[in-house]
Amino acid sequence: MSLPPDGDLLPRLLAGEQRAFRQLIDAYQGAMRAVAYAIVGQRFADEVVQDAWLAVVRNLDGFQQRSSLKTWLLTIVANTARSRLKQSRREVLLDDLPGPHGTLDEGRFAENGHWMAEVPAWHQDSPEALLAEEELRECLEKTLLGLSEMQRSVVLLRERQGLELEEICNLLGVSLSNVRVLLHRGRLKLFATLEHFEETGQC
Questions:
Q1: Suppose 171 and one of 28, 78, 94, 124 were both cysteines; which one would form an S-S bond, judging by CB atoms 3.0 to 4.6 Å apart?
Q2: What is the reported pTM?
Q3: Euclidean distance between the first and final Cα of the chain, in Å?
Q4: Alpha carbon of 83 to those of 2, 70, 77, 169, 203: distances in Å?
Q5: Gap between the Cα atoms of 77 and 50, Å rounded
Q6: Residue 172: which of 41, 79, 47 has the closest Cα?
Q7: Residue 133 pLDDT grade (very low, low, confident, very high; cuts 50, 70, 90)
Q8: CA 180 to each of CA 14, 31, 78, 132, 152: distance values in angstroms, whole numbers, following the listed order
Q9: CA–CA dist 122, 198 (Å, integer)
Q10: Distance of alpha carbon 2 from its chain centroid, rounded?
């Protein structure tokens, strides 16, 4: 079932129509949880989404349609997630932010976030190769979990959710230059894991 346009759905939501709320939840629950997971991790993601939905219900009559409903919902869940981080006293490591010369100097990625050279193909020629792929996936997940909070958030929102850099800036409250550096450094760590695995077969 496709979601009706915001202009059709919003009056029904404001009228308290349960079917409209169900449509909204079905359409955006996954994306909201992905944003929450990217910011606070698995442990608090569901709690953040629940709190965000409560905030949506409380503030729906104040939605001024300056953005899409989706953008508004993701902004609420991102704000809720950041508040949850503050409550748990988690801090962003200073070395994750670019210094005076924080540039993308390693030569793998362009300014727009795309690869500067074609990425070598990962071949799956045998059951052994398929097993290695699963092991590589687990290895990359381990590396991802080892990234700092902000690096992991930016990488997940960009690579798994496909959000534009400007959207990530708005959701995380971070400047565009910082998002680029965080994304670049996170990608480099994942790429280093990939290269090491291809060379050694080990994580």
A1: 78
A2: 0.66
A3: 42
A4: 32, 20, 10, 16, 34
A5: 9
A6: 79
A7: confident
A8: 38, 22, 19, 31, 13
A9: 9
A10: 24
